[in-house]
Amino acid sequence: MTAITRTRRNIDAPAFEDMQRCVHCGYCICDCPTYLALGTEAESPRGRLHLISALAEGRVSATAGLVAHLDRCVQCRACETACPSGVAFGRIMERGRALVLRGGGGRPPLGWRLRASLASLLLPHPGRLRFLAGLLRFYQRSGFQKLVRSTRLLKLLPGRLYEMEQFLPPLPDRVLAPVEVTRPSGDVPAHRVALLVGCVTPVLYPNLHEATVRVLVRNGCEVVVPPKQTCCGALHVHAGDLKAARRLARQNIDVFLALGVEAVITSAAGCGSTMKEYGELLKDDPKHAEKAATFSALVKDVTEYLVALPFNAEMGTVRGRVTYQDSCHLAHAQKIKAQPRAILEAIPGLDFVELPQADRCCGSGGVYSLTQPEMSWRLLEEKMKRVAETKAGILATANTGCMMQLQAGLRRFGPKKTQMAHVVELLDEAYRAVEND
């Protein structure tokens, strides 16, 4: 493998030092969902790394076939957990996609450019997302969705509108209206934390953020929700649009560091893993490199933070049999697996049962369910088979993207009576149940 020359044109190319860590042992392929599904080397982490290396060194161009292999990577990072050599495959894939998007090896694919443009046009703009949510809410409430689904009209339309519609969860009646500061009533707060609201969660799961705030307050936290925060940039990073991701990261860093909090909390694993890697994203930025490293050290997943406190054990009873699906960017990117389980096992009345292959990707992968719907459904169907084996009435996870994906899986494949919940929602229910016990 020859060293990659970094120029202004390929400054975001994968680092030679990252790629040379791979010793081609093959441990990764046993945990790669696309390799397990398709059985071809080009759909494995090892194979994709070889393609990215050849692209970065100019030995191949970004042909449709090569781009397709990169696009089919769900970026679950299970290979990183399996790798004995510590290959940072997530970073390599992000940089490989950035190289393609910036024209390294040929003109970037139209689909990739559209994806990056849509992410920048929508995600950092709450007003636009609320407007879109209003249209979708009308579509669902007016009866038009029922008509469309009964007549299969979407299958007659171009593109992937049918698949997008199938993954759409029922929209709530409202969007989140966050309170800027919430304090424990009558108590001097023991902790002061900030909460990342994010971009899509306030529209799709406002109850989750409200539950997160209540849980944090119950554990002695003053919770600050700065209004000038923005999208974390996770989908931009995954799509290779590192320029846009850096712009969003700088804004979040400046906003959150000015608050003087002890932690920046998120209830979305994908957001958390990206923010914990702001230090890497901005390591060459002379104005923000040091601040980015400081910020990344403050970021905590809500389950991680609560278990470290430790969390208040005064809870009421929540009846049910629950299983837990590991979010890839919590289990593999952040190496957090025990904490969500510790919370679930501590809730009185919950019968926790382990999910077979719990850390195998559900096929969400940010927008993967929209860009690779066939593979996404394939992975999701397998996941639902494992869920059915547990006979659980509650399926818990710790990431909003996974929640949306798993809800779609329950609707299409079942088990139909199983309910979807975030871990923190169940903890919030237990705290509120104290009064009823």
Description:
With 437 residues, the protein is of the alpha/beta class. The protein folds into four domains: 93 residues, Orthogonal Bundle (Fumarate Reductase Iron-sulfur Protein, Chain B, domain 2); 56 residues, no CATH class; 127 residues, Glutathione S-transferase Yfyf (Class Pi), Chain A, domain 2 (Up-down Bundle), CATH 1.20.1050; 121 residues, Rossmann fold (3-Layer(aba) Sandwich), CATH 3.40.50. 50% of the residues lie in helices and 8% in strands. The chain contains 24 helices and nine strands. Strands 1-3-2-4-5 form a five-stranded mixed sheet, sandwiched between helices. Strands 7-6-8-9 form a four-stranded parallel sheet, with helices on both faces. Helix 14 crosses helix 17 and helix 22 crosses helix 23. The longest helix is centred in the last third of the chain and has 18 residues. It is globular, with a radius of gyration of 21 Å. It starts with 15 loop residues before the first helix and ends in a 5-residue tail after the last helix. The N terminus is likely disordered.
